């Protein structure tokens, strides 16, 4: 419909930018999520946040799987470790998505806090990385440490299924602390597990008919294009600059949603 063209254009641009951002520094959800809330609010009211979350996750999922495939060489030596993490990732991701479905209005109330959590995660990313470099163990993680990592991965997946922005930072921190390979291997594991978490949550969202497919279809195509061009842009734009853009957007969004909630 002609009246929908501006909406589709805005959503397409947000998904393209999200694809670029995910390729360079992460945080693409922080662009698609608010754009979808604005588009869906007239029809869904308080439930718009839950539908926006489901649609955003679905739209960005192909990019997650493409990223995981891109790391297949780095994952070759980490298959045994990766297989241990698949189970908690699937269960946690599905359970987190199920919690969204059970109370869509509660999810809407929590949106400011979820966005603020993502903002804080991106803010502490670099200090956390520096700390990891000086505290990495010089030996393979033992059974107790592996069990602790599996439990932590379940909690990360639970949060990822519920909202998702910032799960890569949490996983890299845990993997680095456990000494789970070099940075390339850890990035491969993180990307593959993120795709697994998002895939599990999308299955739940689709089963409960929470995805707005017309919007998702447009956003999938532009997000893939954004991911492709983002890989090229990454060679020219410092990741640190993009990370601070993500942080600024996240804190601005959190402030906006808190103010909106306070205004009733």
TrEMBL record:
Keywords: Cell membrane, Membrane, Transmembrane, Transmembrane helix, Transport. It is found in: Cell membrane. It is a multi-pass membrane protein. It comes from the Bacteria. The chain crosses the membrane at residues 7-40, 46-69, 81-100, 106-124, 144-161, 191-210, 216-234, 241-259. InterPro entries: TM_pro_TauE-like (IPR002781), TSUP (IPR052017). The keyword Transmembrane applies. GO terms for cellular component: plasma membrane. The keyword Magnesium does not apply. Belongs to the 4-toluene sulfonate uptake permease (TSUP) (TC 2.A.102) family. This is Probable membrane transporter protein.
């Amino acid at each position: 419909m002609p009246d929908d063209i501006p909406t589709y254009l805005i959503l397409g641009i947000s998904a393209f930018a999200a694809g670029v951002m995910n390729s360079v520094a992460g945080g693409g959800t922080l662009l698609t999520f608010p754009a979808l809330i604005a588009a869906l609010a007239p029809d869904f009211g308080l439930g718009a946040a839950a539908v926006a979350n489901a649609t955003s996750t679905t739209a960005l999922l192909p990019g997650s799987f493409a990223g995981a495939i891109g790391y297949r060489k780095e994952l070759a030596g980490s298959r045994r470790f990766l297989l241990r993490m698949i189970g908690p990732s699937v269960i946690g991701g599905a359970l987190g998505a199920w919690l969204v479905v059970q109370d869509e209005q509660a999810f809407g109330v929590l949106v400011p806090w979820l966005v603020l959590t993502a903002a804080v995660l991106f803010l502490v990313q670099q200090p956390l990385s520096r700390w990891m470099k000086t505290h990495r163990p010089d030996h393979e993680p033992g059974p107790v440490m592996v069990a602790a990592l599996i439990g932590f991965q379940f909690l990360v997946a639970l949060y990822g299924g519920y909202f998702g922005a910032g799960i890569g930072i949490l996983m890299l921190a845990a993997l680095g602390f456990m000494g789970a390979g070099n940075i390339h291997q850890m990035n491969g594991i993180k990307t593959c597990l993120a795709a697994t978490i998002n895939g599990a949550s999308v299955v739940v969202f689709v089963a409960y008919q929470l995805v707005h497919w017309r919007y998702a279809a447009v956003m999938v195509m532009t997000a893939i294009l954004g991911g492709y061009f983002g890989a090229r842009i990454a060679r020219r734009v410092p990741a640190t600059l993009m990370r601070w853009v993500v942080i600024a957007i996240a804190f601005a969004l959190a402030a906006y949603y808190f103010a909106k909630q306070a205004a009733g």
